[in-house]
Automatic annotation (TrEMBL):
<keyword id="KW-0812">Transmembrane</keyword>
<keyword id="KW-0472">Membrane</keyword>
<keyword id="KW-0436">Ligase</keyword>
<comment type="similarity">
    <text>Belongs to the ATP-dependent AMP-binding enzyme family.</text>
</comment>
<dbReference type="InterPro" id="IPR000873">
    <property type="entry name" value="AMP-dep_synth/lig_dom"/>
</dbReference>
<feature type="transmembrane region" description="Helical">
    <location>
        <begin position="71"/>
        <end position="90"/>
    </location>
</feature>
<dbReference type="Pfam" id="PF00501">
    <property type="entry name" value="AMP-binding"/>
</dbReference>
<feature type="domain" description="SEA">
    <location>
        <begin position="496"/>
        <end position="537"/>
    </location>
</feature>
<dbReference type="InterPro" id="IPR000082">
    <property type="entry name" value="SEA_dom"/>
</dbReference>
<dbReference type="InterPro" id="IPR020845">
    <property type="entry name" value="AMP-binding_CS"/>
</dbReference>
<protein>
    <submittedName>
        <fullName>Long-chain-fatty-acid--CoA ligase</fullName>
        <ecNumber>6.2.1.3</ecNumber>
    </submittedName>
</protein>
<keyword id="KW-1133">Transmembrane helix</keyword>
<dbReference type="InterPro" id="IPR042099">
    <property type="entry name" value="ANL_N_sf"/>
</dbReference>
<feature type="transmembrane region" description="Helical">
    <location>
        <begin position="233"/>
        <end position="256"/>
    </location>
</feature>
<dbReference type="GO" id="GO:0004467">
    <property type="term" value="F:long-chain fatty acid-CoA ligase activity"/>
</dbReference>
<dbReference type="Pfam" id="PF13193">
    <property type="entry name" value="AMP-binding_C"/>
</dbReference>
<dbReference type="InterPro" id="IPR045851">
    <property type="entry name" value="AMP-bd_C_sf"/>
</dbReference>
Length: 537
């Protein structure tokens, strides 16, 4: 595939030139135009350059949803440096692992993490940039001035930082007098960012994503969703997540559209309010969001006066009940399911605007190939269930600092997801390969059982896992979270399941939980549930 731009800064520069007064970011009552955005990016990039950040250096970003996140991300990449967005829900030890693993030289972070990072001197980083100001307890460095570059020379010595730790405020960076001194030299094959996986098993791994990876995604998604400069993308999911970052930050900037910034998903009424008032046209959510919307009482005026033309769902497959509830409430808009993973930049496939299939995640984006294979990497026939493998410009360079020979084979990425493809090329996700339950030699797919449990109106969320017994066979176990104020007995739920499922699929144990553990994108953490179940056996 051919791409118009070599890097993100080149893209932003062109948009700012063509549409200087167009609104790039709606931040509550603030409107930030593309020309203003580029000016801020240039100043932050100029500061980073002055302290020695160069091509290929890693800069970690631990920032909640804000214009500062977007400015930081584009400023880092403007230098040909590599951005490393960090999950804002992590604790010190987890943050420390990522910062040290990627060898970050600077950390840009929200001041709300001051308490968590009291041991900041143990991170091995010597330069901290705080949004919005340096918190109490950290010594603020001297104000920036035109002589700061001279001071920086003592900090950055021969490619290594000195032992002095600097703490500066992001607000000062926006006043830095020297903008970036040269055009960005990064090309399509260079690293753009490193996204660390959620670490559901073992330590998180850093997926190295190039500009080609990113552009293959945003061009493919843009064509699939028919995105244009007239669109407005409402962003409330965490920007550190690959799905949000690519499709709701970089994509709108690519086409010159607007980002409606919502700093948090809570309260959700504010998300709906901003969607309505700012006339959002594209809305990205995860299954938990759409389940909640489908079951909640949505104000009549939102249903009739919102401008959303497209609701997009990623992170995990939607339950059929969720799709039914949602489409009944919003018959004028389309709800599109997609499929992807961080290692694929992240979007692999989505349904088409003109043609969708229930419970399918659609077809691969233009230029991508997928196959369904067995354990020997042999392709299976149409309709057969096997592992999904992906090939195309979306496939990451590899995991940072790790051997990737078992992950990427002859250009094909092993996703670890189980699925099937129908005669029209539509993909159906069956389950995670690691979540597959094998009981008495029979394959059991947890999602199939979860779909039936979700049909009960009392159920808010559920998760089905396999637990090994003393014979190393697996038993089916279900965790169920009920809606507030509603109840159902285990006996009644079990009887209901028997109407729709074979006996070998019926959970041996059903545990009711006040709240299921989730990650930042709403995925239920089955690893955590497996750890919890050990105490119950």
């Amino acid at each position: 595939m051919g791409y118009k731009y070599q890097n993100l800064y080149e893209n932003l520069t062109q948009i700012a030139k063509d549409k200087p007064n167009a609104v790039a970011i709606y931040d509550d009552k603030i409107k930030l135009c593309y020309d203003e955005l580029k000016t801020k990016v240039d100043r932050v990039a100029g500061y980073l350059e002055s302290i020695g950040i160069r091509y290929g250096d890693k800069v970690a970003v631990l920032v909640t949803n804000s214009q500062e996140f977007i400015i930081s991300y584009y400023a880092i990449t403007a230098l040909g440096a590599v951005a490393v967005p960090i999950n804002t829900f992590l604790k010190f030890d987890e943050i420390s692992y990522i910062v040290k693993d990627c060898e970050a030289k600077v950390l840009i972070l929200s001041s709300s993490y001051a308490k968590e990072l009291k041991k900041a001197n143990q991170l091995g980083i010597h330069h901290f940039i705080w949004v919005s100001d340096v918190p109490n307890g950290f010594v603020k460095s001297a104000p920036l001035d035109k002589t700061y570059e001279e001071e920086a020379e003592s900090l950055y010595l021969g490619g290594e930082f000195s032992d002095d730790i600097k703490h500066v405020s992001f607000a000062e960076l926006l006043e830095f007098p020297n903008a970036i001194s040269h055009e960005c030299k990064a090309n399509l094959d260079d690293l753009c960012h490193i996204i660390y996986t959620s670490g559901t098993t073992g330590k998180p791994k850093g997926a190295m994503i190039t500009y080609k990876n990113i552009y293959s995604n945003i061009v493919g998604v843009s064509n699939r969703f028919k995105a244009s400069s007239k669109d407005r993308f409402v962003v409330f999911l965490p920007m550190f997540h690959s799905f949000t970052l690519t499709t709701m930050v970089v994509l709108p900037m690519h086409v010159g559209a607007s980002v409606i910034l919502v700093k948090s998903v809570f309260p959700f009424s504010n998300v709906l309010k901003q969607t309505l008032l700012k006339r959002a046209t594209i809305f990205l959510g995860v299954p938990a969001i759409y389940t909640a919307i489908g079951k909640a009482k949505i104000p009549w005026y939102f249903k009739w006066f919102n401008k959303v033309r497209l609701f997009v769902c990623g992170a995990a497959p939607l339950a059929q009940q969720t799709i039914d509830d949602f489409t009944q409430k919003f018959p004028r808009a389309k709800l599109i399911e997609g499929y992807g993973l961080s290692e694929c930049s992240p979007v692999v496939a989505s349904n088409l605007l003109e043609k969708q299939k229930l419970l399918s995640v659609g077809k691969p984006l233009d230029g991508y190939e997928i196959k369904i294979v067995n354990d020997e990497m042999m392709q299976l026939s149409i309709g057969e269930v096997g592992e999904i493998i992906v090939k195309g410009d979306c496939v990451m360079r590899g995991y940072y600092g790790l051997d990737n020979s078992d992950t990427i084979i002859n250009g094909w990425l092993k996703t670890g997801d189980l699925g099937r493809v129908d005669g029209d090329g539509f993909i159906y996700i069956v389950d995670r390969k690691k979540d597959l339950i094998i009981s008495k030699g029979i394959n059991i797919y947890p999602r199939e059982i979860e779909e039936v449990i979700y049909q009960r109106e009392e159920v808010e969320a559920c998760a089905v896992i396999g637990i090994s017994d003393e014979h190393a066979d697996e038993e089916v176990v279900a965790f169920v979270q009920l809606k507030e104020g509603m109840d159902i007995e285990e006996k009644e739920l079990r009887a209901y399941l028997k109407k729709y499922l074979a006996n070998f699929k019926i959970p041996k144990n059903i545990y009711f939980s006040e709240e299921l553990p989730r990650n930042a994108t709403g995925k239920v953490l089955k690893r955590v549930l497996k750890e919890q179940i050990k105490d119950k056996i």
